[in-house]
Amino acid sequence: MDPSPGGLGAVSGPARLAGPDEGLSAQELALATRNHGLPLEALRYDVTPPGLHYVLVHYDIPDTAPDTWRLTVGGRVLRPLDLDLPGLRARPAVTRRVTLECAGNGRALLGPRPVSQPWLVEAVGTAEWTGVPLAALLAEAGPAEDAVEAVFTGADHGVERGVEQDYRRSLPLATAADPAREVLVAYAMNGAPLPPQHGSPLRLVVPGWYGMAHVKWLREVTLTATPYTGFQQTAAYRLRQEPGDEGEPVTLIAPRALMAPPGFPDFMSRARVVRPGPVPLTGRAWSGHGPVVRVEVSEDGGAAWTDAELVRDPAHPWAWAAWRTTWTATPGLRHLAVRATDATGRVQPLAPPWNRGGFANNLVQRVEVLCAPAPTAPPRPPAA
Ligand SMILES: Nc1nc2c(c(=O)[nH]1)N[C@H]1C(S)=C(S)[C@@H](COP(=O)(O)O)O[C@H]1N2
Ligand SMILES: [Mo]
Fold first, then answer.
1. Would you call 223 helix, strand, or coil by DSSP?
2. Statement: residue 338 has pLDDT above 80
């Protein structure tokens, strides 16, 4: 066993913290290349086009065969179910547009940095998910009187901080069976069968909740009479200041607004360049706690704010809203920022909320923009 921090011999607990001057490691780079984010210019689409939605996979994408796939619903139920895909597809289906965000989004901006998937701000995407309401399946199975939680098991298997496991998460039964929460057992994404990386052939979709709850490659739903205490529920995804803290569980998505970076980028630094004058600023905003009610932008890093126009589509309450405004750029280096406020009064912070796992860091996004007058024309080839 490898006794190094984060190796197989490590005890479970929060991720290791990077040292004060510790750069990103090859291990973090390897995770970052497997688990890709949304290119921020793709914020222009209401529904994220195939392949541009962020991806997070803890272990390997499992080798799943849709033709022989079974989903069981068992444990503390009166009538256990054993379903195949045609059986699921034969049931009444619903389609919901849902914005999904990884709980670790923003982690790499923290200091000290928890060593894990190093997201900046791009671990988000919006898809149209089609499937069977979980509430309907649970009603069919009939929860026993003592059932309190539903535990969801994926087909992927791995080791995490010394604990070998199938990927497994639970929801309170009251959430899982709540028709208003609209939890889905989804078999299609944007009208096509789920792609391998997004959970083919079945996944859970839990509108409003951070990504870890949306169990992919779903093969088993088990109702339990006691709360589930497995790794992904009690070791991971808790808001801890100290390793020994019990910590609050990570649940609903905190409000966040993102800007489609304006102008054009510098290849290496990704710093933006715009011309003086009116510059359209657009983006998206969302919250799992309730609708976003306000989006503000700043050109000085968050000292002064002005309201942007917010465009919400009431047909899609679980999806991000669009926002837009026009900024009058003047020459110089500017620090654009954007922040969202939701209906519960939650507003994005100017200082990152820190915890040992690096979860739910909804710090306001800052975008460095150089406003430069038009470049002089490049030299032309000499006339022949
Ligand atoms: N079975 C399984 N489900 C999973 C995961 C996983 O590793 N295995 N990752 C979770 C996490 S942490 C996130 S953020 C979302 C990512 O979903 P996506 O890749 O479809 O965007 O899936 C969740 N469901
Ligand atoms: Mo995640």
1. strand
2. yes
